[in-house]
Amino acid sequence: MRPSVHWCWVLLLAAFAAGAKTDEAASVRDAAEPKLAYVIPIRSDVNRPMAYVVRRGVKEAERAGADVVVLDMNTNGGEGDAMEEIMEVLEKFRGDTCTFVNTKAYSAGAFIAVATMSVS
């Protein structure tokens, strides 16, 4: 038996719990501040025209001073090149990004959804 290992786990869990409380307090403060969200619907296959729609939506969100861009997604997937273009456009957005999967996000849609998991 090695009691020192057990104490390490106790200390690690205590440190994690202390960090979680700090993060929780910060998220409560952030939640009190209203944020402007801009929703971009993705209701078809991921392709070049959809990449244009997302690019235009992100530009409008920036002009409006949006804090977060939300993709409202229901797609079967699509082209890899268009998916990469959409992900690059979203990466350049200065605020947070997230995806609401409204029924399905297959293939390219799933990659985009994972890439937008940056809400703080």
Features:
about 120 residues; 2 domains; three-stranded parallel β-sheet; disordered N terminus
> So what's the oligomer here?
single chain
How many DSSP-defined strands? 3
- Give me the number of helical elements: 4
The second-level CATH architecture of the largest domain is: Alpha-Beta Complex
The overall average pLDDT, rounded, is: 81
Q: Provide the succession of SSEs.
A: HEHEHEH
Query: Helices and strands: which structural class?
Result: alpha/beta
Helix content range: 55-70%
**Strand line-up in the sheet with most strands:** 1-2-3
User: What is CATH's topology name of the largest domain?
Assistant: 2-enoyl-CoA Hydratase, Chain A, domain 1
How is this structure best summarized?
By secondary structure, the chain is an alpha/beta fold. Helix content is 57%, strand content 20%. The chain folds into two domains: 1-32; 34-115, 2-enoyl-CoA Hydratase, Chain A, domain 1, CATH 3.90.226.
Commentary on this structure:
With 120 residues, the chain is an alpha/beta fold. It has 2 domains: 1-32; 34-115, 2-enoyl-CoA Hydratase, Chain A, domain 1 (Alpha-Beta Complex), CATH 3.90.226.10. It is built from 4 helices and 3 strands; from the N terminus they run αβαβαβα. The longest helix is centred in the first third of the chain and has 30 residues, at 3-32. The termini are far apart.
